[in-house]
Amino acid sequence: MRIDGLFIVDKPEGFTSLDVVRQVKRRCRAKKAGHVGTLDPFASGVLPVAVNDGTKIVPFLEEEPKEYEGTLVLGEETDTDDPTGEVTDRRPIDGIGVEALTGVFQTFRGKILQIPPMFSAVKVGGQPLYRLARKGIEVERRAREVTVFDLRIEGIELPLVRFRLSCSRGTYVRTLVRDIGRRLGCGAYLLRLRRVRSGPYGLDQAIPFDELRTPGPVSQLRPWLISMEEALPTMAAWVGEARLLEKVRVGRTLTWNDLAPSDLSFLSKGRRVKMISPSDGLAAILEAEVDRDDLKEAHPYTVVFRPLRVFQKKRGFQETEAENVKEENDGIGSGEEEGDYRAIQDP
């Protein structure tokens, strides 16, 4: 049986994101799998994991905002900015109350600059920072702009502060907490973190990790599988004619001559669109090269869409009677090839 699509996994504490990917890959007998947005081992919550052809949509899912619930500790800093590190500084928190906390939290909303932590997968000179950090080497890192859409305090029991955060991709919550502590003048580190949403997906759609560790036929996972065409719900969908689908599937662009007189009222330059096949579901992801108003004076060979990703004709749950019998006898699959920190793939 072949599965293509996306699972939303509730990652427990104590596992790496790659641990989760390995388990999904093994349980689904997938040739390849990858995750969207890394969660540190001490963190838990929503971790989207794509399998087989679903890995092709990971770059589009990574652009979505994330939401977290967390708890920080005031008065201490650690070398990792989280509970796994060694305490490097302690300061009193006398005089820090609701007003001071609220004021500082407000200053971190909107666009901010962050310096990636040394204990991170960011590469400098081809080396992941965490490898250098483990050797006691600290190097200069460039600040990156990220966006904090919302940051609010949920509860205060000093030295603990519970908060909720909505932010753009690439935001380091550990770094945000460290910077909050330094602005307060007492230091802080991130004690607990739970991702409650990644883009359009929340905990209510997540499969428990234990379910993935329980032997059984792959078909038992069907209720949690998000199909390819459903996996990008905020992206506009366009049903393509057979002749256009064939062009796109061999990597060709679509011109105004190809499309007229199609309804392209949704068109805007740079917008990404799901091209749907009536028989096979998601066929491609296209990017518009022109705006709708540009078509009024368009040349017949003006490029309107170019394909960013093209998908196989048949996906989802593909099974035969023989495969079903084999599943019942075998339980879960075994064996994997380890890839990078984000994905694993068989040769």
Layout of strands and helices, then pairs:
Elements (H helix, E strand, L loop, with lengths): L1 E2 L1 E7 L5 H12 L3 E4 L8 E8 L6 H4 L4 E9 L1 E3 L8 E4 L7 H10 L2 E5 L8 E2 L2 E2 H6 L9 E14 L2 E8 L5 H12 L3 E11 L2 E2 L4 E2 H5 L22 E4 L2 H8 L4 E2 H4 L12 E6 L3 E8 L14 E8 L6 E2 L2 H10 L12 E3 L2
Parallel strand pairs: 2-15, 4-13, 16-18
Antiparallel strand pairs: 1-21, 2-4, 3-4, 3-22, 5-12, 5-13, 6-7, 8-11, 9-10, 11-12, 13-14, 17-20, 18-19, 19-20
Based on Cα principal axes, name the global outline. Answer: globular
Mind telling me the C-alpha Rg?
23 Å
Give the full name of the CATH homologous superfamily of the largest domain: Pseudouridine synthase
Strand content: 25-35%
The gist of it:
This protein has nine helices and 22 strands.
Could you explain the architecture of this structure?
- With 347 residues, the protein is α+β, with helices and mostly antiparallel strands.
- It folds into 3 domains: 2-64 and 200-228 and 319-338, Alpha-Beta Plaits, CATH 3.30.70; 66-198, Pseudouridine synthase (2-Layer Sandwich); 236-310, PUA domain (Archaeosine Trna-guanine Transglycosylase, Chain: A, domain 4), CATH 2.30.130.10.
- The chain is 20% helix and 33% strand.
- The protein contains 9 helices and 22 strands.
- It has helices at 17-28, 58-61, 98-107, 129-134, 173-184, 209-213, 242-249, 256-259, 321-330, and strands at 2-3, 5-11, 32-35, 44-51, 66-74, 76-78, 87-90, 110-114, 123-124, 127-128, 144-157, 160-167, 188-198, 201-202, 207-208, 236-239, 254-255, 272-277, 281-288, 303-310, 317-318, 343-345.
- The strands form 5 sheets. Strands 2, 3, 4, 5, 8, 11, 12, 13, 14, 15 and 22 form an 11-stranded mixed β-sheet that branches. It has a 5-stranded mixed β-sheet with strand order 16-18-19-20-17.
